[in-house]
Design goal:
InterPro entries (chain A): Cyt_c/b562, Cyt_c_II, Cyt_c_prime
Number of strands of chain B: 2
Number of domains of chain A: 1
Structural class of chain A: mainly alpha
Strand order of the largest sheet of chain B: 1-2
Radius of gyration of chain A: 20 Å
Strand content of chain A: under 5%
Radius of gyration of chain B: 19 Å
Largest interface: A-B, 20 and 16 residues
Strand content of chain B: under 5%
Number of domains of chain B: 1
Largest sheet of chain B: 2 strands, antiparallel
Organism (chain A): Afifella marina DSM 2698
CATH superfamily of chain B: Transmembrane di-heme cytochromes, Chain C
Protein name (chain A): Cytochrome c556
Oligomer: heterodimer
Number of helices of chain B: 7
GO biological process, one term (chain A): electron transport chain
Order of helices and strands of chain A: HHHHHH
Number of strands of chain A: 0
Helix content of chain B: 55-70%
Shape of chain B: elongated
Distance between the termini of chain A: 46 Å
Order of helices and strands of chain B: EHHHHHHHE
CATH class of chain A: Mainly Alpha
Pfam families (chain A): Cytochrom_C_2 (PF01322)
Distance between the termini of chain B: 34 Å
CATH topology of chain A: Four Helix Bundle (Hemerythrin (Met), subunit A)
CATH superfamily of chain A: Cytochrome c/b562
Mean pLDDT of chain B: 89
Chain lengths: 151, 220
């Protein structure tokens, strides 16, 4: 009997974790932005001259960013997952859910900058540099309004 | 900065009865009516007005400038260079520019503050004890603002401070979270500074603006 209870407890633990908690959503969201950061990191390093320009690598990073723009953010922006709901777990400000239109605007500027980047990424460092700058600018502009500075 | 916490050390002896003197410093007796001295050396004056321009540029560009913050960075570096020059000048500069001559202890600050509301000019031959407190305060807050700016990483890959890569991301975020409140504090300090100058001019009938241009101050 005791063995049965123990095994039930072992089974129950992972099945509880399967439920989508607000924290899961926040972690997945942070993961999505980490992916963007991973691609952006090397592009920025090339643009700043910290890394040699590599047309193929630049095109791949740009294409990955473009692919990620097709990912629907709806589940990542589930209500009840702001930094007011989950202090210390996320920097997403409640302003996101109060002003979805504003978020949409920022997202459109970001997508346009990613598309612009894709059209020039393989054309040389002089073309890449301003496109990366413009893209980083759209990151900043959204961070300013919708992301807390610290956890 | 240790000199600042030891006011009075190495100060010039007080002359008896405020004899008119060209090298009169903040440590000396008030200016006599009609007595004129060289109060601010050219480094202090150029520092002051260059800081006005560089700080206004850094603040405005930070708040309202383009999302690619290159110009904000240059303005910030200029402020940093000016602050470093002023601190060095506070040890090796002219008598009125040296911290040791104008930073005072609580007793002198309180004594000066007790006369603050009287409707007469201070005739201070340099920084008054209360103003000295402000100078030290604003230099410290500016240094903090420069430090947090250099370390801040907003994680947009284009606006990271040049020293952010040498610290952990947690530190870089903390620096970022301090940078903006400090900018508000600095704006308040600028407001207090300008309000004090206006107060001296209108209430105490003492013009502190002209000496910052000409370097000369006349007793009233």
């Amino acid at each position: 009997m005791r063995r049965l209870l123990l095994s039930l407890a072992v089974l129950a633990a992972p099945s509880l974790a399967l439920a989508q908690s607000p924290q899961d959503v926040a972690e997945a969201r942070i993961g999505y932005f980490r992916l963007l950061g991973l691609e952006m990191h090397d592009l920025a390093a090339m643009a700043k001259g910290e890394k040699d320009y590599d047309a193929e690598a630049a095109k791949t990073h740009a294409a990955n960013l473009e692919a990620l723009t097709h990912y629907s953010m709806a589940a990542l922006l589930a209500p009840g997952t702001s930094n007011a709901d989950l202090p210390g777990k996320t920097r997403a400000l409640p302003a996101i859910w109060e002003n979805m239109e504003g978020v949409q605007e920022k997202a459109e500027a970001y997508v346009a900058a990613v598309q612009n980047l894709n059209s020039v990424a393989g054309e040389g460092l002089d073309q890449l540099r301003p496109a990366v700058g413009k893209l980083g600018g759209t990151c900043k502009s959204c961070h300013d309004d919708f992301r807390a500075k610290d956890f | 900065m240790s000199t600042m916490s030891e006011p009075g050390r190495g100060s010039v002896p007080r002359p008896s009865g405020g004899i008119p003197h060209q090298d009169k410093t903040s440590d000396h007796a008030p200016l006599q009516a009609g007595e004129e001295i060289r109060v601010w050396d050219p480094v202090v004056r150029i520092f002051h007005w260059a800081l006005v321009v560089a700080f206004a540029a850094a603040w405005g560009l930070g708040k309202f400038g383009p999302d690619e913050m290159t110009l904000h960075f240059y303005a910030g570096y200029t402020v940093a260079a000016l602050v470093v020059i002023r601190i060095v000048w506070g040890f090796v500069g002219s008598a009125n520019a040296r911290f040791v001559n104008f930073v005072k202890g609580p007793r002198k600050i309180l004594h000066y503050a007790s006369h603050f509301a009287s409707r007469e000019p201070s005739n201070c031959p340099g920084h008054n004890p209360l103003g000295a407190l402000f100078i030290v305060g604003v230099l410290i807050v500016l240094a903090m603002q420069i430090g947090t700016g250099l370390l801040a990483d907003p994680e947009d890959y284009i606006n990271a401070g040049p020293l952010a890569k040498y610290v952990s991301i947690e530190t870089a975020r903390q620096a970022l979270s301090w940078h903006e409140p400090l900018s508000t504090l600095l704006l308040i300090m600028v407001g207090v500074h300008i309000a004090s100058i206006v107060f001296y001019k209108l209430y105490k009938h003492e013009d502190l603006i002209t000496p910052m241009f000409t370097g000369r101050k006349k007793g009233l």
